[in-house]
Amino acid sequence: MLKIRLFERQDTEQIAQLFHDTVHQVNILDYSKQQVEAWAPQNIHFRNWAETCLNSFTYVAQYKGLIVGFAQLEPKGHIDCFYCHKNYQRCGVGSQLYQIIEIKAVELKLKGLFTEASITAKPFFERMGFLVIQEQQVTCRGETFINYAMKKLL
After folding, report:
1. How far apart are CA 145 and CA 138, in angstroms?
2. 16 vs 147: CA distance, rounded Å
3. What is the pLDDT of residues 110-154, one digit of tens each?
């Protein structure tokens, strides 16, 4: 059974690796090798991940002891990281993580949620009721990417 809980410091290495692997094995379908290497370089800084996750509402989806997804909600309604393990795509992990985020947003009395979705994640967020505000080009470590500013009113 899938368990969703708040991030704990000991999750850091697993979620950093999940992020790296998802970008390199799932997002590679929509972005070039150079783009995914810039987005998720080999030298992931675990300490930075822990601080980022502890400074937001970071939810972890765990199945049989393995972290299979995680998502971050910042206090003002921004959804930052939202990743599901490559072997757990399209099986409800993301939907369950999103439901928890939306419940927390309502609890925080937020009027809406917003994110910058990758080409890969855009259809998921559309299914969750988000609308595209604009397509944008962003630069990360010298590579330019297309993503989508999206929002959902609650």
Report:
1. 5
2. 21
3. 999 999 999 999 999 999 999 999 999 988 888 899 999 999 999
CA 84 – CA 74 distance, rounded (Å): 18
The pLDDT confidence band at residue 47, using thresholds 50, 70 and 90, is low
Residue type, 151: K
DSSP the chain: --EEEE--GGGHHHHHHHHHHHHHHTGGGTS-HHHHHHHS-SS--HHHHHHHHHTSEEEEEEETTEEEEEEEE-TTSEEEEEEE-GGGTTSSHHHHHHHHHHHHHHHTT-SEEEEEEETTTHHHHHHTT-EEEEEEEEEETTEEEEEEEEEEE-
pLDDT, tens digit, 9 for 90 and up, residues 70-115: 999 999 999 999 999 999 988 899 999 999 999 999 999 999 999 9
Distances in Å between the Cα of 125 and the Cα atoms of 34, 51, 82, 116, 139 are 25, 26, 10, 10, 22
* pTM over cut 0.85: yes
Residue 115, amino acid: T
